[in-house]
C-alpha cells in the first residue's frame, strides 16, 4: 500500500467543440489546465485514449500522477446514477456510452460522471454564487442549449431517472418553433443562442428597419449584444423578445420551487448586460406574488472558463478512491 496522500483531483469538462482538463487541489485552486478539440475524435475509444494520455501528462507535470485521488467529468446527456452518456444529440458518439467505467479502466482512478447542467450547478454551489444556499436554480446557456439544475434543502434534485431540470424543453409556446428535441415551442428554441439568432433573423425579415445587424459578417449572440451597445433598436428588440419568453419560464419554475435565487450562467457578460433587464421585468410581473421580492434573479460570478472544471472537480471528491483491494 502506498502512503502517498492523494490531495488533488482532475476535473474534465467535455463539450461539443472542446474538452478541458484541470488539476484542482482541495481548496478549489486550479493548478493547471489543458484542452483539446473534442471534434477531432469522432470515435469514443480514440477520444478516451487522448483523454487518459492528457490526464497522465498534466498530472505528472504538476506534482505526480500518484497525487491524483479521482476524476470528475461533466458531459452532455450524462447520467450520474449510471456513469453513462445517454444518447447525446449534439455529440458524435451515439447510443449509451459507459464513459466513467471506460476511463476508470484506462487510468486506474475512480471516475464520476455528471450531466453538464448538474455539474455547472455543483460548481456554483461549492465555489460560486450559490455557495451557502439551500434552495436555488442554475440555468446555463453555455452548452449549445439551455440546461438547468435545482437544489432543494441543500441537495441536488436529480429525479428518478437522473434527468431532472430540463427547463430548456418545457413548452413556452404551444405549437411554436421546432426544437432540437423534435417537439415544438420549447424554451430552448427561443432563448438558446440558436433561438436568439433565429429571433434576430425573423425581425430583420419582417421589416426594412435599418440595423447594424444587417451588415454583420457573422450573426452571433455576442455580436447582437455589441449592436445594442451602439443603441441599435432592432438588436434591443431581439433581447426584449428573448427576455419575454425567458422571464415567463423562470417565473414558472421559481413559483414552483420558491428558491433563494435563480442564477443565470455561461453567457458572456456583454450578452447578460442586455438580456437580464427585460427578463427581470417579465419575471417580476409573473412570479408568484408572495415570493416576488424575496427570490433574486442574478448572474453567476464565476469565470465561464472555470465553472465546469471546478464543478467536475467537486464531483470527483464525492467518489471513493479506487483500489483493487477495497
Ligand atoms: Zn425541446
How does this model look, in words?
The structure is a single chain. With 326 residues, the protein is an alpha/beta fold. The protein has nine helices and 13 strands. It has helices at residues 44-60, 99-107, 116-127, 188-191, 193-206, 221-229, 233-257, 269-286, 307-316; strands at 8-14, 18-25, 30-37, 68-75, 78-79, 84-86, 96-97, 110-115, 136-140, 147-152, 155-156, 261-265, 296-299. The longest helix is centred in the last third of the chain and has 25 residues, at 233-257. The N and C termini lie close together (11 Å). The mean pLDDT is 94. Residues 169, 179, 181, 183, 186, 188 line the site of zinc ion.
Question: What does the secondary structure layout of this molecule look like, with pairings?
Answer:
Elements: E1 8-14, E2 18-25, E3 30-37, H1 44-60, E4 68-75, E5 78-79, E6 84-86, E7 96-97, H2 99-107, E8 110-115, H3 116-127, E9 136-140, E10 147-152, E11 155-156, H4 188-191, H5 193-206, H6 221-229, H7 233-257, E12 261-265, H8 269-286, E13 296-299, H9 307-316
The protein binds zinc ion.
Number of strands: 13
- Determine the structural class based on helices, strands and strand pairing: alpha/beta
Q: Which range best describes the helical content: under 10%, 10-25%, 25-40%, 40-55%, 55-70% or over 70%?
A: 25-40%
Query: How is the biggest beta sheet arranged?
Result: 5 strands, mixed
Q: Provide the gyration radius in Å.
A: 21 Å
Order of helices and strands: EEEHEEEEHEHEEEHHHHEHEH
- The percentage of residues in β strands lies in 15-25%
Separate helix tally: 9
| Terminal-residue CA separation | 11 Å
Low-confidence stretches: none
Amino acid at each position: 500500500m502506498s502512503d502517498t496522500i492523494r490531495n488533488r483531483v482532475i476535473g474534465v469538462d467535455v463539450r461539443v467543440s472542446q474538452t478541458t482538463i484541470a488539476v484542482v487541489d482541495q481548496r478549489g485552486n486550479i493548478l493547471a489546465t489543458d484542452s483539446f478539440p473534442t471534434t477531432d475524435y469522432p470515435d469514443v475509444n480514440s477520444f478516451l485514449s487522448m483523454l487518459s494520455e492528457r490526464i497522465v501528462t498534466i498530472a505528472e507535470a504538476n506534482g505526480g500522477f500518484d497525487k491524483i485521488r479521482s476524476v470528475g467529468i461533466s458531459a452532455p446527456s450524462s447520467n450520474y446514477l449510471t456513469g453513462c452518456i445517454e444518447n447525446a444529440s449534439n455529440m458524435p458518439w451515439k447510443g449509451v456510452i459507459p464513459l466513467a467505467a471506460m476511463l476508470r479502466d484506462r487510468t486506474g482512478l475512480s471516475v464520476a460522471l455528471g450531466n453538464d447542467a448538474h455539474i455547472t450547478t455543483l460548481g456554483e454551489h461549492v465555489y460560486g454564487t450559490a455557495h451557502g444556499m439551500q434552495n436555488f436554480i442554475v440555468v446555463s446557456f453555455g452548452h449549445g442549449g439551455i440546461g438547468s439544475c435545482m437544489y432543494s434543502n441543500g441537495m441536488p434534485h436529480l429525479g428518478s431517472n437522473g434527468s431532472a431540470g430540463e427547463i430548456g424543453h418545457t413548452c413556452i409556446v404551444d405549437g411554436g418553433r421546432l426544437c432540437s428535441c423534435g417537439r415544438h415551442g420549447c424554451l430552448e428554441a427561443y432563448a438558446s443562442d440558436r433561438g436568439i439568432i433565429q429571433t434576430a433573423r425573423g425581425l430583420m425579415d419582417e421589416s426594412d428597419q435599418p440595423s447594424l445587424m444587417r451588415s454583420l459578417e457573422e450573426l452571433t449572440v455576442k455580436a447582437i449584444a455589441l449592436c445594442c451597445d451602439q443603441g441599435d433598436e432592432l438588436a434591443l428588440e431581439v433581447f426584449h423578445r428573448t427576455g419575454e419568453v425567458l422571464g415567463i419560464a423562470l417565473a414558472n419554475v421559481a413559483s414552483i420551487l420558491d428558491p433563494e435565487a435563480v442564477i443565470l450562467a455561461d453567457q458572456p457578460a456583454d450578452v447578460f448586460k442586455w438580456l437580464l433587464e427585460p427578463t427581470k421585468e417579465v419575471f417580476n410581473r409573473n412570479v408568484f406574488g408572495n415570493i416576488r421580492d424575496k427570490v433574486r434573479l442574478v448572474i453567476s460570478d464565476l469565470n465561464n472558463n472555470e465553472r465546469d472544471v471546478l464543478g467536475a472537480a467537486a464531483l470527483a471528491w464525492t467518489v471513493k478512491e479506487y483500489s483493487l483491494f477495497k
